[in-house]
Amino acid sequence: MLAPRALVLRAPGTNCDHETAFAFERAGGLARRMHVRALAEKPAAADDFQILCIPGGFSYGDDIASGRIFALEIRTRLADALVRFRDRGGLVLGICNGFQVLLQTGLLLADAATGAPLASLAHNRSGRFVDRWVSLRAIPGNCVFLQGLGRFELPIAHGEGRFVARSPADFTALDAAGQLVLRYAVGADGTPSNPNGAEGDVAGACDSSGRVLGLMPHPERFVDATQHPAWAGRLDPAAAGAGLAMFVNAVKAVS
């Protein structure tokens, strides 16, 4: 039986596609990196994959706003193909810049009646780019990617990662529906971990099916224990990093 296939969709400025492809292959999948314009020339190529990932980076230099141009290109040239991919049960993962893209394309957290986004990712409340490790708490519900995860750590690197719902009522509805599946948590030393002022400490959200996930932290940057800055004397160097579990869960779900 062929291993599940993951499509890592990149654009100019994407810089985490190699690491993301490696993580899927480390998890037992087959990964292919593809430029968005190559897929736009042959949208049916998406039918050859079971998993789609939009990785992190600074697509198109994050001109105008983070992920805006990448999202516009998807909406104008690939909307039908990617909606079809999602609706046939394909798994979709957006990491950091990819999370920003998913929200702006309507592939994640869109109003069912109007297609308008129910949430956005605003500039960090500090006004500064933040690059550090954070403590996280998963509330997986039916989210495929987060099964078996509780509290763990991942690195972040973003300037526009503050989750903001369209309205308090929308936040309450998303929370009640179990779609706000990843939160920044208090660290082991008691230090609050919300790095950007996100509403409700939200670090990631999924769709109602649990098969589409967007998150600001970078799981592909912690697939080996030795990638953690404090691994020496604390983690088994032969162990997997906490981020690998998301890729393993995805591969298992479509195997």
What do you see in this structure?
The protein has a nine-stranded mixed sheet with strand order 2-1-3-4-11-10-9-6-7. The longest helix has 10 residues, at 17-26. The model has no long low-confidence stretch (mean pLDDT 95). The chain is built from seven helices and eleven strands. By secondary structure, it is of the alpha/beta class.
Number of distinct helices: 7
Give the tally of structural domains.
Answer: 1
How would a textbook summarize the main sheet?
9 strands, mixed
Helix content: 10-25%
User: And the CATH topology?
Assistant: Rossmann fold
Strand element count: 11
Question: Numbering strands along the chain, what is their spatial order in the largest sheet?
Answer: 2-1-3-4-11-10-9-6-7
Q: Indicate the radius of gyration in whole angstroms.
A: 17 Å
Low-confidence runs: none
The CATH level-2 architecture is identified as 3-Layer(aba) Sandwich
Order of helices and strands: EHEHEHHEHEEEEHEEEH
- Mean of residue pLDDT values: 95
Output the structural class. Answer: alpha/beta
Distance between the termini: 9 Å
CATH superfamily annotation: Class I glutamine amidotransferase (GATase) domain
Q: What portion of the residues fall into strands of 2 or more residues?
A: 15-25%
Look at the structure and give the CATH class. Answer: Alpha Beta
Q: How does the overall form come out from the CA principal axes?
A: globular
